[in-house]
Amino acid sequence: MNIEEFRELCLYKKGVTEEFPFDADTLVFKVMGKIFTIAPLERIPSQVNLKCDPERAIELRETYDGIITPGYHMSKVHWNTLFLEQLPAKLISELVNHSYELVVSKLTKKQKAALEGMI
């Protein structure tokens, strides 16, 4: 999966926005204003950071040693860095969904209701 395909995957999800809050090269995807993925566009090979359940994060790092690593410049407990072009698209999609759902689960009732009301 390339970065443009990854971008389309993220933007397809309900309530997602994209922005560059840090610099012109770091694309951030948010759901209801909360970050669920970061894509440093200047990194080669293409990489993204995704939020992950801590136990699952460890399992993924062991299974995909060197391809899924502790989150670069992030909390190593809750974030993983994925090397996009070396992983199956299905796995990347599952991990995007997982990151998105982790963030949504922490939204307030009001934010969840607003998200549900979006088309």
How would you explain this protein's 3D organization?
The protein is α+β, with helices and mostly antiparallel strands and 119 residues long. It has a domain at 3-85: Aspartate Aminotransferase, domain 1 (Alpha-Beta Complex). Helix content is 37%, strand content 25%. The chain contains four helices and six strands; from the N terminus they run H-E-E-E-E-H-E-E-H-H. The chain has helices at residues 3-11, 54-63, 89-105, 109-116, and strands spanning 16-19, 26-31, 34-40, 47-51, 68-70, 79-83. Strands 1-2-3-4-6-5 form a six-stranded antiparallel β-sheet, with helices on one face. Strand 1 and strand 2 form a beta hairpin. The longest helix is centred in the C-terminal third of the chain and has 17 residues, at 89-105. The radius of gyration is 14 Å and the shape is globular. The mean pLDDT is 94.
CATH topological fold name of the domain at 3-85: Aspartate Aminotransferase, domain 1
Which class do the helix and strand fractions yield?
alpha+beta
Strand adjacency order, main sheet: 1-2-3-4-6-5
**Approximate helicity band:** 25-40%
Task: Determine the oligomeric state from the structure.
Answer: single chain
CATH class of the domain at 3-85: Alpha Beta
Please indicate the percent range of residues in DSSP E strands (runs of 2 or more).
25-35%
Q: Would you identify the regions where 5 or more consecutive residues have pLDDT less than 50?
A: none
Q: Examine the secondary-structure arrangement and name the CATH architecture of the domain at 3-85.
A: Alpha-Beta Complex
Q: Could you spell the SSE succession in H and E letters? A: HEEEEHEEHH
Number of strands: 6
Rounded Rg = 14 Å
Spatial shape: globular
Average pLDDT across residues? 94
Mind summarizing the main beta sheet?
6 strands, antiparallel
